[in-house]
Amino acid sequence: MSMAQDVAAQEFSAVVSAHRPQIFRFLLASTRDVDLAETLTQECFLKAHRNWAGFRGDSTAITWLMRIAINLQKDHWRNRRIQFWRHARTNSVDIDEAGEWLPSNESSAEQKVLAHERVAQVWKAVEGLSERQRTVFLLRFVEEQELSEIARATGLNEGTVKAHLSRALAKVRTELGGKR
Amino acid sequence: MSFKNQNEQSVPRPALHQQLDPEVLDPALKATLASFRLSVHAWADAAASRPRLPQAISPHRNRLWRLAAGCALGCVLLAGGVSTGVYQHHRNQIRIAQALEAQHQSQLAAARANQQARDEEDLLAKVDSDIARQTPSAMEPLARLMSDDETR
Fold this sequence. Notes:
The structure holds two protein chains of two kinds. Helices cover 77% and strands 0% of the residues of chain A. By secondary structure, chain A is mostly helical. Chain A is globular and about 60 Å long. Chain A starts with a helix and ends with a helix. By secondary structure, chain B is an all-alpha fold.
């Protein structure tokens, strides 16, 4: 292996170590299926490895990787030829179960129950979002990405990202408000 | 001239990008979204560090694979059996056709031989009769004499 290839391999290895958890988390939140999220994460890094030589650094590595992950998720949905979430529902964990993973930083038991309920309501709202709205919402409020980063990762312009995010938030507000 | 209400102008609405900023969201929603984010992070961390048991990952899928492989093998065996049967049947048909053809040929040959023998017999009979007509019988003069005596 030449020196340049060795350096590239080391660079890619560092990128995998740094960003794998984030990609897996996004795919897990998108699919709510641990096995599927792991498979898509592996596919994402395999694809990234194949195209690593073509990565020119126009965007950050995480934005580039996130774009690959979003496309893989879309392809998976298209290949299945069924509603993604309808399929996911069969393999994925239940909303209540997904909401179980709440760090115990709430002070009282009552607050914990309340927080658990609210998280389950957000999951329910997320389930009702369109694919784009869900992607944008998760990137913004789970991965805490800037609107410009989301625009680059999704291939949408910032105005469209804002519109999707605004509609997604409105649905979350409605879900939370309706249950109070 | 502005048609806007005086009250509306005095309460400036936050711009869209500010509405979408987690820092500007109302405290209850902000807290809920923070809990949601933390729960997703905790879930992903737990899922990433879970022990991986290859057999325990998808026993259902393994069962499906075994079932599919069994079906495929069964189909191959069935197809093999059927095609062997068809091939044997085809070969038997050819053998029967060949036997029938040979029998027919031998019948034709026998008929031809019979016809030839019959033709030869006819030819000999014809030759005999022709010779008989041309050459008188050895007893003919004696027979003529006898017939002369009777007339006398």
